[in-house]
Amino acid sequence: MDKKQLYKLKSEASQLKPVIHIGKSGLTEPVIEELKKQIKANRLVKVKILKSTFESEDTIQFSQKIADATNTTLIDVRGNNVVLYR
Q: How far apart (Å, rounded) are the C-alpha atoms in residues 21 and 5?
């Protein structure tokens, strides 16, 4: 993905509201399935993660796990918000 497309996706994502909230139970199979549905419908999805979900890990590492589980590209990580694109 080139820089121009990445900047465009980041600007689009800034206008989005999180469609999925990942809670203290973490990255479970139902959460992954719902993420896949949302990504299929919208292609660009923002996810909000509860801080206690990834206390033992770095935010970026946990975000990469989400991207790997859903076969998407990690576009942006800001605080506890993650933007995914397929």
A: 26
The encoded tokens of residue 46 equal 């923002």
Radius of gyration of the chain (CA): 12
Helix (H, G, I), strand (E, B) or coil at 20: strand
The identity of residue 53, as a single letter, is T
Q: Write down how long the chain is.
A: 86
- Tokens standing for 79? 């605080």
Neighbours of 24 (CB within 10 A): 9
- 17-75: pLDDT as tens digits: 999 999 988 899 999 999 999 999 999 999 999 988 877 778 899 999 999 999 999 99
Q: What are the beta bridge partners of residue 56?
A: none
